[in-house]
Structure formats: C-alpha cells, structure tokens
Amino acid sequence: MKFFIDTANLKEIQEAYDLGVLDGVTTNPSLMAKEGIKGADNIRAHYKAICNIVDDNVSAEVIATDFEGIVREGKELAKIDSKIVVKAPMIRDGVKAIKKLTSEGIRTNCTLVFSPGQAILAAKAGATFVSPFLGRLDDISQDGIELIAQIRNIYNNYGFGTQILAASIRHTIHLVKCAEIGADVATCPLKVITDLLNHPLTDIGLAKFLADHKKVNG
Ligand code: E4P
To answer: Which of 8, 9, 21, 109 has its CA 20 to 30 A from that of 29?
Structure first.
C-alpha cells in the first residue's frame, strides 16, 4: 500500500518524507489556500517545492471545469515536474479531459468520487488514480469504507489498472480498513500516519526493557 500525505504544508511533507514511508502527496485548492498560496506563479513554485521533497506522485488540481480549460491547465501543471499527477474533478468535462491527458501520457487523478459508478467512469477514462472521499461520505451517514470495497471488487472483476486512492481519511481505523480491502493508496493528514506508531503496550514494553537494562548496567 502506498502512503500519500494530504497537505500542501512543506514542513509536514518533509516530516512524513523523513519518516521514510512517504510515496506521494495530494493537494487540492482548499489545502493550497490554507497555506496562503495565491497567484499562478506562487502556485507553480509551491508545487515545484513539493516535488523537490518527495520522490514521485504529487497531485496538483486544476481549477478549470471545462474540457479545453482542464486540458490546458493540466498540461501546464504537468510541465512543472515529471512527478506531477494532474487532478481533475469527476464531472463530464473532467472525464473527457482525463481521457485526453491520459492519451498524451500525462498521469491523472480523478477526484471527488463518491459512488461506484463514478469510479467505473474514471477507470474507463484511463485515470491513473481514482479518489473516493470516504470521510465525507461518513459525514453524511453513508459508509465510506463500503465504497472502497465496492470499487476494489469492480476493478478486480475487470482488471482495471486505475489505482484506488482512498481519500478523506480521518483516522487510523479508516486507513487500516482500506489496507484490508486492498486500496492501492491511502492519502491522509500527517497525524494519521504518525498515529499508526502508537500503542500503549509498545511504550510500557520499551520502558520495562530500558529499566531492566539499567538495573544490570547502571
Ligand atoms: C484528496 O485528494 C483530498 O484532498 C482529501 O482527501 C479531502 O479530504 P477532506 O474531506 O478531509 O477535506
């Protein structure tokens, strides 16, 4: 399973990368705005800075919502660095643009996916990644984890190569359940990644080992 970090914060990206478990980054316009990144030049420079930290897979989202605009913006984003994956929304023109960008060798991430039918369309269009937002489904009392399982099953049935990028992950149980189902990627905030470290028995066990060592060795 690949781990992506869902943030545009360079410090957090560096921290996750330094942990040695990071395979990529997902951003979106809200996350970029949260970091105060504005203006085309600054946005490009920020994506470049992210690419300079990680080895691959930096999702950069288009703002355009029409076919020509998404393709144009996608191509511009892809020029920033070979690590860029163009993120486009699950709308009619987004699907068409994903097909076009894919045919030109540009990797894509189909975002804002909330149903198995949308995931089928993303795969048919040739998206590199599909991003089902499981936390946002949970927020409206629908089962986000069930959606991941449905997409896994459908993609297995037909051998679709699109990677399932489980998104909107809120806690470690989400992440572990996605791993059990076989999601290809999980993208989550830094805290979810570092929370995986925690178990009280680890802390108790380590304290005991060190205390026993000290008794004998001083
Ligand atoms: C994924 O690519 C999105 O950026 C993200 O996971 C959305 O998560 P949220 O629902 O916590 O905003």
So the answer is: 21
| Ligand 1 atom at shortest distance from the alpha carbon of 87 | 2
What is the residue-averaged pLDDT of the chain? Answer: 98
Per-residue pLDDT tens over the stretch 136-170: 999 999 999 999 999 999 999 999 999 999 999 99
**Whole-number CA gyration radius for the chain:** 19
Superfamily of domain 2-217: Aldolase class I (3.20.20.70)
What residue type is assigned to position 12 of the chain?
E
The helix, strand and coil proportions of the chain, stated in percent and rounded to the nearest 5, come to 55, 15, 30
Separation of alpha carbons 187 and 167, rounded Å: 5
Residue 6 CA to ligand 1 centre (angstroms):
7
For the whole model, what pTM was predicted? 0.96
Out of 4, 6, 130, 171, mutate this one to test ligand 1's pocket (max ligand atoms within 8 Å of CB): namely 6
The dihedrals phi and psi of 166, each to the nearest 5 degrees, come to -65, 120
Q: Which atom of ligand 1 is nearest to the CA of 136?
A: 10
pLDDT tens, position by position, 10-66: 999 999 999 999 999 999 999 999 999 999 999 999 999 999 999 999 999 999 999
Q: Give domain limits for the chain.
A: 2-217
**Residue whose CA is closest, atom 1 of ligand 1?**
167
pLDDT mean over 169-181: 98
Q: Return d(Cα 169, Cα 136) in angstroms, integer.
A: 9
Distance CA 83, CA 70 (A): 18
